[in-house]
Amino acid sequence: MNKRFVTSALSVVSAAVVLLAGCGGGAQPDAAGGAAAPSANQVKFAYTMPLTGDKAEYGVHFSTAAEIATEMINQSGGINGKELVVDIYDSKGDPKESTEIARKVTQDPSYIAALGDFTSSSAMAAAPIYEEAGMVHLSPTASNPDFVKMGDYQFAMYGTQADDAPYAAEYVIQKYLNHDSVALIYLNTDWGLSALKYFEERAKEIGLKITAKEPIAEGEKDFTAILSKLKKTNPDCIYIMAYATEVANATIQARTSGWDIPIIPSSSAVTDQLIDMMGAYAEGLVTNQVYLLSEEDKPVWDFAQEFEKRAGIPATYFSFLAYDAVWGLAEAARYAGDNLTREAVKDQLKALDIDTLLGRLKFDEEGNLRRQYKIVGYQNGRWVELAGYDFMEQ
Questions:
Q1: First-to-final CA distance of the chain
Q2: Nearest CA among 360, 269, 265 for reference residue 318
Q3: Whether residue 56 is found in the same domain as residue 131
Q4: 122-125, long-range: CB within 8 Å, 24+ apart, which pairs?
């Protein structure tokens, strides 16, 4: 399937996505109290995401993108003539909720595969359940390399800290910004610790000095003490491995305290929420991203316009990942043909090699999608490309 198919069906408005609150939803019990059998006319995926809680913004990106993808797939004939149905479950961004949803979904034979969750922590908490059940568990955004190592049925599309954090260390901080030292702030989670590990390894290899490193909790609000500690080590810049809320809080507090040090957010923090929270303080941010939205790529541009019309917020990398995840999983199911089993979907996903909005979708042997990056900066109220994919070759 080619990504150029995107433009033809963006105006379709048939409702194929069912929104389900909390851990409820899914197939309705039959009269005997068991889960309903798979429908002969439908192919069903479960999609777990945070629709409420601190990470609810990301759920908007996931759910809206899934809606668009599902409508387009059904408009173009569905999956071998069957309607695709994507049931959405709210994990609240909580690993415990993700595991409960995984138990419910895997016990329901009407589901052929699952997508989600948003964070590595939530995806990894649910992974053993999907693995035991032999059901594909495809996360658009889990970036901890250990996630896909949890079994043959675990797949990730984001790109991992094994690519992301080392790229930031070598190409963003050292080669592009020409810094010799950096102080680190990182989330004290599975995701944050993994990012820290890979950043430190590459920094050691290239001679980038780490002057200090400070862990934080998700949703950290007061960075006064942390910034004071980091300032005493006199770094050239600060790299923050966290999400939009933490990056915004840290940057604003550094600036209002009079410290004008360059602050580099990890790619995971780049959302519309980050810019909204930071306001004028967002000017001059530099980071790495897989893509940059441009009218020159019409399918990408058309999707972004449709997404913003529906969601009321601009599309981000997470929107595209969520869309491509549904599209890729649907293709795997299509290639399975009449042998549409959970195992067959896994086998076809492993062999998949297609074009999507974010480029080539082909997993490595472990189940990761390896990503390339551009260096981008926020200038005059918008993100601009500072260096392309070929910067790594210079």
A1: 33
A2: 269
A3: yes
A4: 122/48, 122/91, 122/93, 122/94, 122/95, 122/97, 122/98, 123/98, 123/147, 123/154, 123/156, 124/95, 124/150, 124/190, 125/95, 125/96, 125/98, 125/99
Q: Which long-range contacts (CB under 8 A, 24 or more apart) does 385-393 make?
A: 385/292, 386/176, 386/286, 387/171, 387/176, 391/171, 391/175, 391/176, 392/167, 392/171
Which pTM does this prediction carry? 0.69
Nearest one of 308, 267, 273 to 291, comparing CA atoms: 267
Residue pair 58/49 in contact by the 8 Å Cβ criterion: yes
Residue with tokens 């004290």: 188
Q: Measure Cα distances from 331 to 69, 95, 320 in Å.
A: 12, 28, 16
Distance CA 155, CA 149 (A): 9
Sheet with 154-156, strands from edge to edge, namely 17-20, 83-90, 42-49, 111-115, 137-139, 154-156
Structural domain including 106 reads 3-159+293-361
Same domain, 146 and 165: no
Mean pLDDT, rounded, of the chain? 89
Question: CA triplet 218, 146, 128: central angle to 5 degrees?
Answer: 90
Rounded Cα distance, 112 and 353, in Å: 20
- Kindly report the CATH number assigned to the domain that includes residue 338: 3.40.50.2300
Give the best-scoring range by mean pLDDT among 101-105, 366-370, 385-389: 101-105
